[in-house]
Specification:
The complex is a heterodimer of chains A (526) and B (319). Chain A has helices spanning 3-26, 130-136, 148-157, 165-179, 190-196, 201-214, 296-303, 308-313, 320-329, 332-346, 355-362, 368-390, 396-421, 434-451, 453-475, 477-485, 489-501, 508-513; strands spanning 39-50, 54-61, 68-77, 81-87, 90-98, 102-113, 116-117, 181-182, 198-199, 219-226, 234-243, 246-250, 259-260, 264-269, 276-278, 280-291. Chain A is of the alpha+beta class. Chain B is an alpha+beta fold. Chain B has two domains: 2-49 and 144-312, D-amino Acid Aminotransferase, Chain A, domain 1 (2-Layer Sandwich), CATH 3.30.470; 55-139, no CATH class. A seven-stranded antiparallel β-sheet of chain B has the order 11-10-9-8-7-12-13. Chain B starts with a helix and ends in a 7-residue tail after the last helix.
């Protein structure tokens, strides 16, 4: 190895490692994620265009309850005043001021969710207060509990003097949950849902609240967020009924009764309104969510290390969407390291230098075998297409363009097929690097024509081997935590790469090529 | 492990070391264009009076293809090549003519339309090293020298000479086979035969890395055959390399039946298989060059130094 490369490499490895060790040993930052359950970082992002008058933007904020602990809230907005108002026990964030031009509001928080099952009372001992009754049991436009249709409907289902309230309640719930179909295009209105025997998720929730109120139980809808790892969160709603002093959750959509899953955050009760505004011409909002794997105290250490300099450099302070992107980005150097080892240590040749890394990256979200099969299917279709194109004698760039279209089309149809067959793996194709796949098809075809089937397959095989070798790294929560929490490790990787770059010894492929030298004999010609 | 020791003892050069200590060190990037562009190499050689295969026609743009093909109307044999091709890719050898059709090496028929398409692909950069727009050219088809005809099949053998800092140090001839489809390309199945620098005699030969003694298609003995006009081959290789300023070059020379040795092309990243063909490592010879190099010496003297090094250099374990 040449001396400069060795020295520079060593320097980088030492710098990176000492930073890393200092953070781990002196600042005692957590080395491995403990894989906390139900801890999420959520961000609400609102963009609004004002009319130039004074007004406000209002959004529900989650409160801490038995099933969710909300902490580390932070809000950012330009030129607007932020206050939190409590309305009927809900927290509402209000951003007010003169709304002119485009305003952006970001409200982030962390929430620890836990699945809770509310034990149902065996006997009803407590009756709701009149205050509670007035607020949550009255007939309204949204919940027309004294409408004649509701009364008629209840006649068969609800005895005038219920002996066992809970049994009757279950029957009622069962009817709305099972006998009324959930259709996305269905009505949001309680009475229309009842008469059509089908409704939207909102319609069914409203109907359940309406009938609960009609039998005298205080009930309300809850607006919440459904969290799915690796996907953007979406708003959802469920119903709560006041029974013997407890609000009992139930969902006529998924059929859960008296339990709430640990992936739902309650945002507000009594209203399903998400964002309300005055003096705003147009408004849009979006939720981002990221599952945290560190326990809250570990997270605090990572976010605000005791060293003030480091605190500024902590990636955990970044907006959620940037964090998600960086978590992937910071794994790329490890991929490059594996590629360099394979190429300069083993001497294998793959199609496209970093292609296997990009493929492994695209397959991050799915099982490896299924993903590779998808890649193979796309490539096969492309290569077949290439054979057809071959006859037309097209020029290179338009030909590549046609192939690119074919790749995009096949990926699109796989995504559709995946929805039909409910196989999620089929839809990850959209994450593939299309242009690189196209070049791959072209190179494979040319190699096939010029050098024959064997070299083409060998090279394709090595590409798969390298992708498979990189995949576990991209899939590992440990690697993700290490690279994201300790980005100085990228400097270590640089040092290692410089070492590999300065390696002048034999590659494994050299050994195979010159294997004849191992046998004695064969006089040396000179 | 025994293999590793054997390779170290023989001083076999590996790819990593070749890149670090030879190509990256002795071949400055700015000098690459003259060898990567075969037309530039041709111009360089022509100016220096080094024999090359005759150039018939050139197409630099898609619009010039028609004109280029027009010049082929009366020809029955020629070679269509990309100026920036690597490893023999994109080379179309036309052997014979039957009426309006030509015949490729290997016997497949070829129409004017096929030629137009191939030339267009070349210009689009399909075969170029980096995929950049390329130039297509047609040159005369060389003929196998009778002395080598019996040990080559379907194509023309060439002679590769490694020239380091003006001194030739190792050489091999690449003999095409049926399997290599007439190409002088080792990884496609051609024979690599080590040629003694002093005499031009083939002393060792490999096919796919394994030693052989006879040509698999013609069944003639390969060992002992002498490459004709080999002294002239070395002169051409060294003279052409001198024109480039590069310090580590593989020069490819073909001994044509009529014209004698002509320079085909130069390579700034010559492969390492020549060591297997010679059953000898390059390192001892490369190191000997650094001790005995005399850049100002006349060509004949440098060739003599090369022959001397090839005869005597053995590997001495060093830093």
């Amino acid at each position: 190895m040449n001396r400069t490369a060795g020295f520079v490499g060593l320097l980088l490895v030492l710098i990176g490692l000492s930073l890393f060790l200092w953070k781990v040993l002196v600042l005692e930052l957590p080395l491995a994620a403990t894989d906390a359950e139900g801890l999420w970082r959520i961000e609400l992002e609102i963009t609004a265009r004002g009319t130039g008058r004074r007004g406000s933007i209002r959004a529900p904020l989650p409160s801490t309850s038995r099933s969710q602990v909300v902490f580390d809230e932070r809000s950012a907005s330009d030129r607007l005043l932020f206050t939190i108002r409590t309305e009927n026990g809900d927290r509402i964030g209000v951003w007010s001021g003169r709304l002119a031009g485009v305003h952006q509001v970001v409200h982030g928080f962390r929430v620890q969710l836990s699945e809770i099952t509310t034990p149902l009372p065996s006997r009803i001992t407590r009756q709701p207060s009149s205050e509670l009754r007035a607020r949550w049991a009255g007939s309204t436009r949204e919940f027309p509990s004294d409408a004649p249709e509701v009364k008629a409907f209840l006649e068969g289902l609800w005895p005038s003097v219920p002996e066992n309230l809970l049994d009757c309640l279950r029957t009622l719930f069962g009817f709305v949950a099972d006998e009324i179909a959930t259709v996305p295009s269905g009505s949001d209105d309680a009475l229309l849902t009842l008469s059509a025997r089908e409704g939207s998720a909102v319609g069914k929730s409203r109907l359940l609240v309406t009938v609960l109120r009609a039998v005298g139980l205080p009930a309300r809808t809850v607006l919440g967020l459904q969290l799915v790892e690796g996907q953007p969160p979406f708003t959802t709603q469920w119903v709560e009924a006041w029974i013997d002093g407890e609000w009992i959750p139930m969902s006529p959509i998924d059929g859960s009764f008296a339990t709430r899953a640990a992936n739902q955050v309650a945002l507000r009760t009594g209203s399903l309104a998400e964002i309300e505004t005055t003096a705003v011409a147009a408004v849009g909002h979006r939720y981002h969510a990221l599952r945290e794997r560190l326990r809250p105290e570990e997270l605090a250490a990572m976010m605000i290390p005791s060293n003030p300099w480091l605190a500024r450099l902590s990636l955990y302070q970044l907006p959620v969407s940037t964090q998600s992107a960086l978590r992937v980005l910071l794994l790329m150097p490890l991929g490059a390291l594996v590629i360099a080892l394979f190429r300069n240590g083993f001497g294998v040749s793959t199609f496209g230098t970093f292609m296997p890394v990009l493929i492994a990256l695209a397959l991050r979200q799915v099982a490896l075998a299924a993903g590779l099969m998808l890649v193979a299917a796309v490539l096969l279709l492309g290569i077949l297409g290439r054979l057809v194109l071959e006859r037309m004698h097209l020029l290179l760039v338009p030909r590549l363009g046609v192939l690119l279209c074919a790749v995009v089309l096949s990926v699109t149809s796989f995504a559709l097929l995946g929805r039909e067959a409910e196989v999620r793996e089929l839809s990850v194709g959209v994450l593939f690097p299309m242009v690189i796949l196209t070049m791959l098809i072209e190179r494979f075809s040319v190699t096939l024509a010029e050098e024959g089937m064997r070299p083409a397959l060998v090279r394709a095989g090595w590409s798969v081997v390298v992708a498979v070798a990189v995949y576990p790294i991209f899939h590992s929560a440990v690697a993700e935590h290490l690279m994201f929490g300790f980005p100085e490790l990228v400097i270590v990787v640089m040092g290692l790469l410089i070492w590999i770059g300065g390696y002048t010894g034999y590659r494994f492929s050299d050994l195979i090529r010159f294997r004849a030298f191992a046998k004695p004999g064969g006089g040396e010609p000179s | 492990m025994r293999l590793l020791r054997a390779l170290r003892r023989e001083g076999v050069l590996g790819i990593n070391r070749r890149n670090h200590e030879y190509t990256l060190r002795w071949n400055p990037r700015r000098l690459y264009p003259t060898v990567d562009d075969k037309l530039a190499t041709k111009r360089l050689c022509q100016a220096a009076g080094i024999p090359i295969p005759g150039l018939i026609a050139v197409a630099r743009r898609q619009g010039e293809v028609r004109e280029m093909l027009g010049q082929l109307a009366d020809l029955s044999h020629f070679v269509l090549k990309p100026a920036h091709g690597a490893m023999g890719n994109g080379i179309l050898v036309v052997r014979a003519r039957e009426g309006s059709h030509w015949q490729r090496a290997g016997g497949r028929p070829l129409t004017l339309e096929d030629l137009r398409y191939h030339a267009a692909s070349i210009i689009s950069g399909l075969y170029a090293l980096g995929g950049q727009p390329d130039v297509a050219f047609v040159e005369e088809l060389l003929e196998v020298h009778p002395a080598l005809a019996e040990i080559s099949a379907d194509g023309v053998p060439d002679v590769r000479v490694i020239v380091h800092r003006g001194i030739p140090i190792m050489s091999m001839t690449r003999l095409p086979t049926h399997r290599s489809r007439g190409r002088a390309n080792l990884h496609q199945g051609a024979i690599g035969a080590g040629v003694e620098l002093a005499t031009g005699r083939i002393l060792h030969a490999v096919l796919d890395g394994t030693p052989i003694t006879r040509h698999p298609d013609t069944d003639r003995a390969v060992l002992g055959v002498v490459v004709p006009s080999f002294a002239r081959v070395l002169e051409i290789a060294v003279a052409a390399t001198d024109q480039t300023g590069l310090g580590y070059v593989g020069a490819d020379v073909v001994v044509d039946a009529k014209k004698g040795p002509v320079l085909l092309e130069l390579n700034a990243r010559p492969g390492l298989a020549i060591q297997a063909a010679n059953r000898a490592g390059l390192l001892p010879r490369l190191r000997a060059v650094s001790e005995r190099v005399r850049p100002e010496a006349p060509l004949a003297e440098r060739i003599a130094i090369g022959i001397e090094i090839a005869r005597t250099a053995r590997f001495v374990e060093s830093a």
